[in-house]
UniProtKB/TrEMBL annotation:
Gene3D superfamilies reported in the protein's UniProt record: Glycosidases
Protein name stated in the entry: Cellulase family glycosylhydrolase
Family that this chain belongs to: Belongs to the glycosyl hydrolase 5 (cellulase A) family.
Entries under Pfam families matching the protein: Cellulase
Keywords: Glycosidase, Hydrolase
Compositional bias ranges of the Basic and acidic residues kind: 7-21
Domain Glycoside hydrolase family: 46-281
InterPro entries named in the record: GH, Glyco_hydro_5
SUPFAM superfamilies assigned: (Trans)glycosidases
Organism per entry: Streptomyces longisporus
Length: 429
């Protein structure tokens, strides 16, 4: 439940912007590329023809970009050795994507992928170095990012360079403080930017603990203020969202929208874009029969948010069941099955994107904002099952389109005007 705390007769118009402003012209729709043959182990014996086939299938859905991942141990097997052959593979894939009409975002330090961690041996066993805090380990990662940027920046289809995939998955084996995380991200982002060209993005990503995890060292502030775009990965299994509310629930279908609005609240720049960079329909959390409707609702609801950069689905191809030891959900996340046939969710996603391109949504300012008052130790109130999350969803069900507003900014009239907020409400327990 909610209670009003502030209202005006008419919403303020943000400086420099009209409420009827056209939709973001660069709204993007893509997919995280998982090679059909061999998963990411395909990098051990990269086959351009296999990649070309996968990319043609992706482009055939009307998607405009992919996000790609090489493996850190193959790129940098020694702290002072970056393999030219591995960097060349990555450049070749970017070129193949261009042939298919696809732009590319490259993640640099992998890191963590689909429940597996990939550490170079120079970070392990008796060589162990904390990848977040050891100065030489951090500098090695910075050099890898400089090298990748230098090798790829002249490709006109390069969107940019991301530090790595959900690097906060590595904190269990690499204890780190919030201050150390901030220094790590600042150092690596600066390194990535050294070789990039104007307009290319330098970003980072984190899984949902950064937003919902009490005292997690990766913070919402870091996600929303460092790098050129805020990336969110609103997975329906985080905090048991789908099991808690149901796979076809209102809460599940509006989760990406909520994550986008939550991310906007933590940004210091009201115009900072948000990228829904990973979302998907993992079985059994989302049964296959519900997946097409989930995909359609997720994209449409997210597209109604101002400042959305785009949506990138996870993932392109199912993991082949000949590969062992993945969690069950990892085998069914693709738009295509493991032999390359499009699944019903692929058709639903392609149709929804085609509709949005033919008739774009024009997102309006969210004139009502629900105030979020939490500390690093109580961040979980904003996650599924939390009191704030439930209050936001309650408002949304009533037909409101609530923004998220940090309590510390609730009295800042200039900030409220910049976001188009005319009315604030407080959650009530």
């Amino acid at each position: 439940m909610v209670v009003d705390t502030f209202s005006e007769d008419k919403p303020p118009t943000p400086p420099g912007r009209r409420p009827e402003e056209d939709p973001i012209p660069t709204l993007r729709f893509g997919v995280n590329y998982t090679p059909r043959r061999g998963w990411f182990h395909a990098w051990h014996d990269f086959d351009p023809q296999h990649a070309r086939e996968d990319l043609a299938q992706i482009a055939g859905l009307g998607l405009d970009h992919i996000r790609v991942f090489h493996l850190w141990p193959l790129l940098q097997p020694n702290r002072t050795l970056i393999r030219t052959a591995a960097v060349d593979q990555l450049a070749r894939l970017v070129d193949l994507a261009a042939e298919a009409g696809l732009d590319v975002m490259v993640d640099g330090v992998q890191g963590h992928l689909s429940s597996f961690d990939f550490y170079p041996e120079w970070t392990r066993s008796w060589h162990h170095r904390n990848v977040f805090t050891d100065p030489e380990a951090v500098e090695a990662q910075a050099e890898l990012l400089r090298t990748l940027a230098g090798a790829l920046a002249d490709r006109p289809n390069l969107i940019g360079l991301q530090l790595g995939n959900e690097l906060n998955n590595l904190v269990e084996h690499n204890p780190v403080t919030t201050a150390e995380v901030d220094h790590y991200l600042d150092t690596l982002l600066a390194a990535a930017r050294e070789g990039l060209r104007p307009g290319q993005l330098a970003t980072h990503s984190a899984y949902d603990a950064a937003w919902y995890g009490d005292d997690h060292p990766f913070t919402p502030e870091a996600s929303a203020r460092k790098g050129d775009v805020t990336t969110v990965h609103p997975w329906v299994f985080s905090a048991d969202c789908a099991r808690r509310y149901g796979p076809a629930s209102f809460e599940v279908q509006h989760l990406a929208e909520y994550a986008t609005e939550l991310a906007k609240a933590y940004a210091t720049d009201p115009s900072r874009p948000v990228w829904v960079q990973e979302t998907g329909a993992p079985e059994p959390h989302i049964p296959a029969a519900d997946a097409p409707a989930f995909a359609r609702a997720t994209v449409l609801n997210a597209a109604a948010c101002q400042g959305l950069w785009g949506v990138t689905w996870w993932c392109s191809h199912d993991v082949d069941r000949s590969l062992a030891d993945y969690p069950e959900l990892e085998y069914t996340l693709g738009l295509f099955d493991s032999v390359g046939h499009p699944k019903p969710i692929a058709t639903a996603l392609a149709d929804t994107i085609a509709e949005l391109r033919a008739k774009p949504i024009s997102p309006q300012p969210r004139t009502t904002a629900l105030v979020l008052d939490c500390t690093p130790s109580t961040r979980s109130v904003s996650g599924p099952g939390g009191t704030y999350f439930d209050a936001w969803m309650h408002l949304r069900k009533q037909g409101e389109r609530p923004a998220v507003l940090l309590a510390e900014r609730a009295g800042d009239k200039g900030y409220l005007a910049a976001r188009g907020i005319a009315r604030t409400v407080q959650p009530r327990g």
